[in-house]
Amino acid sequence: MYDKDLASDPQFNYVFDFKNAKVGVTEASGGRLVSANAGNFPALVKAGVSMNYAYVEPCGLVAPHIHPRAASMIIASNGTFLTGYWVENSTAPVINTLQAGDATVFPQGSVHFEFNMGCEPAVFIAARSSEDPGSYTATGFISRFPPAIVAATLGYPEGGLESFIKGLPDFPSNNVKECLLKCKKAT
């Protein structure tokens, strides 16, 4: 379940340094997400919890994604975040705006996102109800399923699918044009 080399380091067993982490890191144009879970922080084995520290660039978008094995509670440390989740096809999405100190909950398995609406970097902290929450982006299937299935699902011509896939944004991304223009960051 976890890296045995990391487990041999006594400091690593009890302290997780989110700001200088070398493991559990996802970094792209929209920011830096750091996850402490049972796979990279031995103290969480059998603890039933995990945590993320999200440093989100101005206009940064943690695009729609899912944690199949955990509910999440996030708190905005600073900045303003637009957040939302959607549980299933027959329900309406729940959209909220979080200011510093505000929190919200995303139910287990819900598709959800976090968007830094501001022109300054912002941070949110996410607590999860599982030591192994799992994660996948809502667009992750596009590059993993057979092209014919993806093309039929999206109503996209199969022949042009490869260039479409290469054009998908990174995660977290920085491509919400309206915000980029407001913050004078658009090119």
Automatic annotation (TrEMBL):
Pfam families on file: Cupin_1
Annotated family: Belongs to the germin family.
Cellular component, GO annotation: extracellular region
Alphabetically ordered keywords of this record: Manganese, Metal-binding, Secreted
Molecular function per GO: manganese ion binding
Annotated localization: Secreted
Species assigned in the record: Rotaria sordida
Origin: domain of life: Eukaryota
SMART domains found in the cross-reference section: Cupin_1 (SM00835)
Protein name as it appears in the record: Cupin type-1 domain-containing protein
